[in-house]
Amino acid sequence: MPNLDHCWDINNCIFNARAPFVMTTATATIKPPIKLQYINALRGLAILGVILVHNLELFDADKPMLSRMMTTFISQGARGVQLFFVASAFTLWLSMSRRKEEKHPTRNFFLRRFFRIAPLYYLGVAFYSLFFTTVHVPMVTVSSLLANLTFLHGLRPEWIHSIVPGGWSITVEMWFYCLAPLLFSKLKTVDHCVRFIVFSILASALLSIVLVTVRPSWLDFVFYYFPSQLPIFGFGILLYFLLVRNDLSKTIKPSTWLLAAGVSLLLLLTGLPYHGVEPAGKHYLFGAAFMVLAYGLSQYNFRLLVNPIINYIGEVSFSLYLVHFAVMYAVRVMGYAEIVTPNHLVAALANFGIRYVLVLIISLCLATLLYRLVEVPFQNGGKRLIEYLER
To answer: Which of 7, 28, 233, 328 sits CB 3.0–4.6 Å from 89 for a disulfide?
Structure first.
């Protein structure tokens, strides 16, 4: 996993943010049924983890007082992106399965995804472009702007973290959207999903090693680019089939078990970093664990994890992600980074916790406004357009 210790300066961290971008795929105008509330809860837990790790990275005062174990634990909040990708793939498959009888399901799929993501993201591009220009940070170029507007910023290392903090996950998500209709038509069983995960992990490992061998400076890039994250979506697709068809032992062929075991052993035996690349990336383990967590919550809504507060945080998590960077910068500039002087462990933990709650509350208020003023209206507009085209 890439080193995150470079985040010693607020501006440096914002425009080099390596945080997961938060995705929600359920339509904004219809509440998910009670039995699917756990999906919003998963999104809520994911964004809480994202803000947690940024609360450490973007403020350097607390870190020296925290133990290595504490900082390591907090840094795993960044794995919220894998949780979002699992939830995203699952809900996409659920949505496509329910809408496959439409006259033009593929066209409608892309329209829904565009109106779900693009309006708010474009607002983020405009805001952060203005912000970086104002503070004289050379992050906005014509090429990076065009790349972000077309969601192609994942093609080059110098673009993938440009303009919108954490925007790398947007391009990853959009690339998955492009593949989703094809994968939906090809992946029909649990066996297909397992094979897809295995082959995509193997392909990602080989491609990353080749790229880093040729361009060592791309080490950071090959963690965040689409091939590295594609297998995570596979776990979300597998979750869909496990919940819809729970005949696991009958649907996975013996040859698939053998293939999965063989590739797993190969990656583990060659698991030492090669030019810094970890063939068996830890984020795949998180992806698998999140799939198991989601499956468990689908069977029982554990109230500590699935409750109205966390569900609502998950519902507005897209907006919450986009605004929390700006809120953190404002907190820093206004002098609230050290509410409690972190001169010993207890004080550092208190300062960390109070600042986390402060950032979360302010960000949640702003996210609610964005959700109601931008997300919902544009999603409704996309829905009306689809209804018109389907006549």
So the answer is: 233
